[in-house]
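Appendix B. Chain record.
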Amino acid sequence: MRKALISGITGQDGSYLAEILLDKGYEVHGILRRSSSFNTSRIDHIFDQLKLHYGDLVDSQSLSSLVSDIKPDEIYNLGAQSHVKVSFEIPDYTAQVDALGTLRFLEAIRSCGLSETVKFYQASTSELYGLVQEVPQKETTPFYPRSPYGVAKLYGYWIVKNYREAYGLHASSGILFNHESPRRGETFVTKKITKGLSRIKRGMQEKITLGNIYAKRDWGHAKDFCNAMWLILQQEKPDDYVISTDQQVSVKDFINMCLEILGFSVEWKGEGINEVCIDTKTGKVIIDISKKYFRPSEVETLLGDSTKARKQLNWKPTYNLKDLAKEMIEYDLEEIK
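Structure tokens predicted for this chain:
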């Protein structure tokens, strides 16, 4: 039986990946950060099938001990401080987890003498491209990160490539574009939109306040993207892959899609931070804009080119964006009952 170790197993991606690996017959180990409150809601339904261990990406000793004791066949490093806006407020911690956490994992593999047996997956991100130098973005597109999160992840990307070339590790990065699901954290814009509008529809909330609704993104389903992670580690040779839907919409387009699914009749008025969305049935503002939710340096557009992954991994997304939005909304409506 193959063993897998997942950091970030309690997150959106970690929970879907754990399900995929269990279905494939893996023994699945996960790393939990100590918390005074329960934070395992996304994996409670498979809790008894997992082997969970306390550890932290800022603690070299805990990672080395886990790698040495478990001797996993595959390691998926999904743990991160993953909120771009928050990374401007806690840049040091973001670097400790997202950049040096990756290094600590790689060093744990090497120091435990498992360089020839362990396959390592690094969760990279489209935020590497930031101020985009080419449209669409592929594996050869120059990087230009625009946040402490993006810069920290850039270090993670390059240290993985360095250890692959210097020590022969089977270490690969998946440069994943935006991916969402009903399990998305509530501070991320798609979840804020689907849950907020669902609560407004049920009369439980008056409005939602957003930032740059004209930012354009390439959005897919986390379940599809986690399947790509597994495929990447099944390749004979390690490599880096862009994982994306190769389609793009703006945040405002996503909002309008959700409004349509929920049956709202609306009118947009104003410009810039004065733009609002008005429910024509009630005359009330249900969406407004605030500078508070703009990043100090914005990433205006991201659009992936996943040709390499589609050819070499035989991977492709199975969800379209409207189906994803509908699934998120249905989940939110059920949850707020």
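Further analysis of this model is presented in Appendix C.
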